[in-house]
Amino acid sequence: MFLFFILPICAALLLRIRAFKRSEACRRALVLAVFILLSLQFLRFVAASHSLPYVIVAGFWPHYAGIVWMIDGISLVFCIAVLVVYLPVAWVFCEAKNPNHLMFLHFLLGFSFGALLSGDFFNLFVMSELFLIASFAVFFSAETLKSARLYFWIQILGSGVFLLAIAFLYKTHATLNFADFSIRFPSQSEHTRDVLGSLFLFVFLLKAGSFPLLAGIPSAYSSLPTPWFAFLAAISAKLGIYAALRFLILTNGEFVHAHPIIFFVLGFLTALLGWIGALGSLTLRKRFLYFAISHIGFFLICTEAVFLAAGHYALAAILYFLPFDCLIIAGLVLSESDQKESDAEEDMTPFQMRWPLALLLLAGSGLPPFAAFWSELAALKGSVTSKFFFASLLLYGVCNLYVSARIWLLLFWETRPRKVRVEAIFCALACLFAVWMGIAHFDWYEEIGRRTKEPLILIKRFHDSSRQIEKVREGGR
Amino acid sequence: MAESTLSNFWIVLGLGLMTSAGLRLVLEKPPLKRIFGLTVLSHAVNIFLLLAGISSTRELHPAVLSGIVPFEKLLDPLPQALILTSIVINFGLLAYLLIYFLTAERGGKT
Question: What's the whole-model pTM score?
């Protein structure tokens, strides 16, 4: 499991060597090697998903005193989501003359895996801060700096509040470990739980790009070079959703039960803002970004539904759609690059040029049998007993379909010829895989959702690992 | 015990002053003042972390340097480790912000 963090960092350092700096073929080989090695590791975990979660305690210390790494269904799916976006983006960066882009991408990959596999709040903080600082580095041009000013200040405010929340957590619970936090949380006073929940969820929703904390995101991301835009738009917000989901699962959705409307309202307002932005933006980049933001709204509504209505069905909906959503966003954004090359493609029919875009938009629209449909269906299936959630999810589905259709019409009938990159075609074809997963293997997601919604298994694994270490230590003495 | 409460009072007072000064500076318009305010705020949070480690008023010893001391009399080392890490991260962020500020001053020439 340690490999997930170490391998990308080693690859980033390798890129400082002259051969990798100069040769495009070497860079492509490195990217492929990293992708294949990580994919094989993930496939091993997918094959052994019935025995997840796994816990690894670094440095031979018990879980409460050392650094702990863990992988369960949620972190596995989120890691896969990061990996599937990594390949097309890294492939584009292999062409770039400056190898620093690829180096920073590997750093971001390592830090995002570090955040997703961390077993305590402080490592989660450290890894997300490192991810943030590495992502700030990609804004280093006069134009992007100017447009990202608000984004910087909001994110730095989030970092401060995150550290404050960790200090408050340690003061009240005397632990930062996920398992021990989950045990001690119910015995705290209502005010303590509320303050802790508010502080952590403020930070996680800020990172997820929820309404109204997404203020700086559209102008900041859309000013970036296309591959960076694709990677950050697809991945950055997902880390926030992961952290919020993890926090709520560890606390058995206590905050959502105490304040049942907050996530729903924020999710719906985020989706609404996303739809308005997608319909009203002047540039295609911003349209795609706002389309991605509207999906964040869906994830937030489902997060609330996990604890109030739909249970593991809503969790399965999130887990299933998340990697494909990352692919959809990355594919759409990558397809928007290289307009200069498009002059040579004038003899192509619109359909020849735009079928990957059509496929990506269909996957995100909620039409059967594409990716978003299975996700919305699972969420609806779980919330049949709650009219409120059922109606909201249905409304979400209809609006999402309408917005996708409008973007599709704009893309398909615009007069300007467009060449679609091979990386976007890869994303579109990968979205076809979602059809097969939705039809044949959706029960796998439901099983993962059922297992990971229950924090007791995770707690037991943490304590088992500590007991084993203590036994070995006693044997050594 | 009274002495310990008194020293805690000074720490809390310092924390309050640093937080208010940091917030005041963050709300200023010049970017350099904002950056300075963020630094002060981050140190205030570090002091809060330090306070989080003080769980009782008895005499406590540092975990590493005090020789053979019973476990229950050792100071909790975790907040200190957390503070060290957060100082390093804040330093990185501060360096980035200063370079950002200088770049903006020079009209975007990196």
Answer: 0.89
